[in-house]
Structure formats: structure tokens, C-alpha cells
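fyi for ur records
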Amino acid sequence: MIIEIILLILLLILAAKSLGSYMSRIFSFKKTILDPILLPIEKTIYAICFIDSKKEQKWTEYTISLLLFNLLGFFFLYFILRNQGSLPLNPNNIPSLSPELSFNLAVSFITNTNWQSVPPETTISYFTEMFGLTVQNFLSAASGIAVAIAFIRAFSVDSSKTIGNFWVDLTRTVLWILLPLSFLIAIFFVSQGVIQNLNPNLQITTLEGYKQIIHQGPVASRESIKMFGTNGGGFFNANSAHPFENPSPLINFFQIFIMLSLGSALTYVFGNFVKDKKQGWAIFASMLILFLAGVCFTYYFELKGNPLLAVQGVNMEGKEVRFGIFDSVLFAIATTAASCGAVNSMHDSFTPAGGMIPLINIMLGEIIIGGVGAGFYGMLLFAILTVFIAGLMVGRTPEYLGKKIESKEIKMTMLAILILPIIIHCFTASACILPIGVKSILNPGPHGFTEILYAFSSAVGNNGSAFAGLNANTFFYNITTGAAMLIGRFLSMIPTMAVVGSIASKKIVPPSIGIFPTNGPMFVLLLIGVILVVGGLIYFPALSLGPIVEYFHMLSGKVY
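which gave:
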């Protein structure tokens, strides 16, 4: 266990520096090893799409481009889902999906949520998997990274009215980062037993004489971008607990590593762009401390188990028995810290206290080693809030990296931060009041409440994992979780981009003796404190109605 954690930390540090250096070169338009192959492709794309790659955009233009691009992606994917029964590469003759389910899935994949309320192996054709879902895995991940790069760029420019070009950031992310690295990851997956084919499902006869369906398909190509792009979802309903998706302890560990690698690398990109690598490492340290705290807390309560069981000890219910308690816990914390949503165990079967940490990770916006940009720019919003509070403490105008933080930035920052909890609480309250929402829960009492709370937190936070126990494939949940995904992804992006535009337009002020340093241990501790205090104040009432009260009920002898 300790060796595994140490190895993971070392690999994340290595990924932060190596992948971060590579990404810095890409977005600084410096020469890379792939340029001879990719530059002609990039120019061809710009020519076909009539894109002026030399023209930079204001934050409003950048945001409009982002929203229009994802709107087109929604219509494209919705069309495929509604017509997959008549499209090719459907050897299992899977029919087209209903309007509300198509809406939910299309929204899910353009928002990088990848929430699937149905078993995909029996609902999604190979054509839809490859040309619909997998394509959006790349594009939604690239959209998030583009926003993060724009935010990083805003701190590095001096009095600029522009923040870059969305189409260029998107294209270079896909061509230079996601495609080549996902290809290499897919090759490695296939070599370790992850399947990749277009064969129809197999029907076999078991030793007991029963018929069993063995599902086939292009799994490795989907898994590579699913994990690396922190998309989540899965080719199979069992997700990363399925041996065709996650066949060995080595692949399990590797999946944990790659879903945390892009979030780690963005911290190094940040340090490179602002010409102070300590700034990036300070953000990385804050993320890592919160991540390790979540792992330790959850592991402690899963080892402690349920005192009401006749067999005392660890809680193996819902765990991946091939990998054990610790790797199930590590995967659960990683996937909710990185905005991924892939699972190798059922969070619904964790102890109340243990299952609360994945829920909190999502509620905080998955800023803890956040994936594909969304978590990282969420962390930068908390960093801005932290320097504002620190500035109030020392009685000076707060500054972050030479940029003065004033009223507009704080208003937009708080709006971006508060959108998530407002929507989570409103949708959860509605589902708990309406009979149509309550009848979908499996367990009564606080555990059933947690199932609903987790579902909407996962949707709004664009995570996509499920607490299980909730039948979300109903008209009510397909529509409400779809709306929650859209709001959580794009409505929070608008004030975030307003902050980006405002920061970029500010003049860089040379540091003075009275400025609070943001590259040392004090800033790291204060940033962690602000995250926990803000998160605690916002979410404690809801958590106390769910996992917290359930934990104390369990100690008193009552379970749900």
C-alpha cells in the first residue's frame, strides 16, 4: 500500500514535469517532435473550416466559439443516438434510443460527464461508440483543456484584450496531446488483455448448462481516452470492474495514474507560463495533500467496516475483489478527484463515512488533481479567492502573480463557485419532494437521500460516476440530470471566462514587500483551508442529512 502510494506520487511528479513541459511547448508554439507530421494536418483543418489561426479572440469571442462548438457536438451525437438502429457497425442489432435518453447521453458526452443510466453494452452500437461517444471523449476533454490554457495565459500576458484562439487551442490539444498519447495507451491496453474488435457478441454454454452472452467491441480505443481524458463512463455497465476493461492489477494502477496525469501536468504548464515554477508546484502540493487526505480517510473507514456485521473487520461489500480494499479506495478517490467517473467498485456499498469522501470530491468541483482543465481552472478560482482573503488580512489590495484582484474578479469567481452548489441543492430537493423522484431510490432514509444527492452532484460536477441504487433511467432523471450537466459545465464556464478576460486585461505589477507570497507552504495551507471552509459551509447541511446521520445511525444499530 505505502509503496504503491509512493510510486504513484513519484509518477505524478514525473508526469507533471515531462508532460507539462511538452504541453507548454505546444501552447507556446515551440517546436516539438510531432510537428513535421501534425503541422500540415493542422493547417489543413484551418483551411477546411475557414479558421484564421493568427487572429486572437476576446474572452467573449472565445466563450461563444466554445459554446457553439459544443452545441454542434450535441446535435451530431443526438442524431447518431436517435438513428443508430439504421447506421452501420451494429452487428448486435441494437435499436435507436428514445428522445429523452438520447438527450441525456448527448448532453453527458459533450459536457465530459459521460453519465450512462443504461448498460452501454446492450444499448450502444459499435458505430455510436466509435463515431459518437469516443469522438466526444476527445472533443469535450479538449474543450476543458482549452479553457484551462486560456486561464493560464491570462496570468502571463500584460494588459491584453485577447486570450488566444479557441479553435487553435482545441485543435492543438487534440492533435498533439490527446490523439497520440491515447493511441499509445490503447496499444498498451491491448497488450495487457483489454479487448479491441468489431465482432458480434458470443453466446456460450456454461459448465452448468446455462446460456451466457459475452459482449465484444472496440473497448481499448474507448478506454484509453476515457481514462486519459478523464471522461469516465465505460464500454461495459460494470465499468472498470469488468475484466475486459480492467484486466489486471497493473492496468488498474496504470488507469489511476493516467486519469491523474493531465491534471498534474497543467500545474507545471501554469508555472512555466507565469515564469515561476514554484507557483505551479504550490498548486500541485495543495491538490496532492487533499488527495492523500481523502485516500487515508476513506481507507480507514473501509478497513473499520460495519460494526453491525457478525464478521468484524474490513468492508468488502461492493469492492473489486481482484484488487482488494486499498486499490478500490484509491480508484474511488482518484476518479472523483480527477473528474473522471470511471469506477472499479460500487460507492453505494462503501461505509457512510467512506462513501462521503468521493461525494465531497465531486461537490468541490473535482479541483483535487482536477481533470482535463475543468478541475484546474476551478482550483485557480479558489486561488484567487485565497489571495483576496489574504489581502484582507494584511490590509492591502490583493494580488496574484502581479495581477490585482478587484471587485469584478471576486464577484465572477464567487458566481462560478456558487453555481454548482445552488444547482445541486435545488435539483436534489426537487427529487426528494416529488414522488417521481423518490420512487427511483433503492434504499430508504438517509442512504436514499445520499443516492439522489450523489446523482445530481455527479451530474452538475460533470463526473459521471453513480452511487448506484438509484434507477436514473426514467424520464424525470434523464431530463433533470441532463439539465444539471449542461448548467454545471457551461453556465459555470461563463463567469470563469469573464474572470479570464478581466485578468488578461490587467497590467502586471512588480511584486512589493507587502504582497502575500503565493509560492510557499503558507499559501498551500491557506488555499487548502479556504477550500475546506467554503466547501464545509456550503455542503455540510446536505451531508449531515445523508452520510453523516447515516454513520451515527449505523453506530446506534440502525442500517438502511
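Residues 390 and 516 are 7 Å apart (CA to CA). thats all i got for now
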